[in-house]
Design goal:
There is one protein chain. By secondary structure, this protein is an alpha/beta fold. The chain folds into two domains: 136 residues, Aspartate/ornithine carbamoyltransferase (Rossmann fold), CATH 3.40.50.1370; 150 residues, Rossmann fold, CATH 3.40.50.1370. The chain is built from eleven helices and nine strands. A five-stranded parallel β-sheet has the order 7-6-5-8-9, with helices on both faces. Helix 1 crosses helix 11 and helix 5 packs across helix 6. The longest helix is centred in the last third of the chain and has 20 residues. The chain is globular.
Length: 310
């Protein structure tokens, strides 16, 4: 089967195991491309992609833009900060005006959960979710899983811990769904205030003890504290960043107590010295830079496969 079962990528929900395997297989081919002296292929020549970012982003936007250009697509970048959205225009009106310029595919980041799914039902073009509020970030989960498959060959039966601000993370939800679909055992770890009550319904374990979790896991994916998503006027989720780092920060001292090495991941951006120390982030057991490289290959694969669905 060489076609995805879905027309859009609004989340990991709805994808099948076959979809994941097709995306990973396609990404393998594109990873070879981006490591050649000539890094472009004409796969999406004469295909126009609009990157609509209603929320600030650097890494994800650049990764998508590079993936699009590697595929030879025409790229249209849109920032809500300097657009008619700031003047009160609705999301659907904004997108329909852009689509009237004959855009074939939309990559959208939006602060509201469900925005990508809403848009996919309202417009005729293909929609890719580049992150919607605290809901999902499917391409990040795909690149994380792809990076783990490269490192370990298989993740079925592996113990994978996601540590940190689970409550405000779209990466956590997408990763849980993706890793469970691949047969991994998943545990979330963090302060009680940063673990949403519904999380166990996704089939994960919950822990508030990082040292015990590190003994259990084969892989630790460290998430940053998303201060920008926390209500500054509400009761704090933890006493201080210093105390958070003492309880849930990954450092060399903690790793040295383990009886075996574990793989270290981080979706970025890193708050060095908070959720992870620099020496751990830059160590031989870290695959953080592999994640960044694989992000381009995965996004090339997603765009290429979805372009056939339009």
């Amino acid at each position: 089967m060489n076609q995805l079962s879905t027309r859009h990528l609004t989340g990991i929900r709805g994808l099948t195991r076959n979809d994941l395997e097709l995306i990973f297989k396609t990404a393998e081919g594109f990873k070879e491309v981006i490591n050649r002296p000539i890094k472009k292929v004409p796969s999406l020549r004469d295909f126009t992609i609009a990157n609509l970012f209603f929320e600030n982003s650097t890494r994800t936007r650049l990764s998508f833009e590079l993936a699009e250009k590697r595929l030879s697509a025409d790229v249209l970048n849109f920032s809500a900060n300097s657009s008619s959205v700031a003047k009160g225009e609705t999301l659907v009106d904004t997108v329909n005006n852009i689509l009237a310029m004959k855009v074939d595919l939309v990559v959208m980041r939006h602060p509201h959960p469900g925005a990508a799914s809403f848009l996919a039902k309202k417009v005729k073009t293909v929609v890719v979710n580049a992150g919607d509020g605290t809901h999902e970030h499917p391409t990040q989960a795909l690149l994380d899983a792809f990076s783990l498959l490269e490192k370990h060959g298989d993740v079925s039966g592996k113990n994978i811990a996601i540590v940190g601000d689970i409550r405000h993370s779209r990466v956590a939800i997408s990763n849980i769904l993706c890793l469970k679909l691949l047969g991994a055992n998943v545990r979330v770890c963090g302060p009680k205030t940063l673990i949403p009550k519904h999380i166990m319904s996704l089939g994960v374990e919950v822990s508030h003890n990082l040292d015990e979790t590190l003994q259990w896991c084969d892989v630790a994916s460290m998430l940053r504290i998303q201060l920008e998503r926390q209500d500054a006027h509400a009761v704090p989720y933890f006493p201080s960043l210093r105390e958070y780092a003492a309880q849930f920060g990954l450092n060399t001292h903690r790793l040295q107590k383990l009886d075996r090495p574990i793989t270290i991941m981080h979706p970025g951006p890193i708050n060095r010295g908070v959720e992870i120390t620099s020496d751990v982030a830059d160590s031989q057991h870290s695959i953080i830079l592999n994640q960044v490289e694989n992000g381009v290959a995965i996004r090339m694969a997603v765009l290429y496969l979805l372009s056939a669905q339009g």
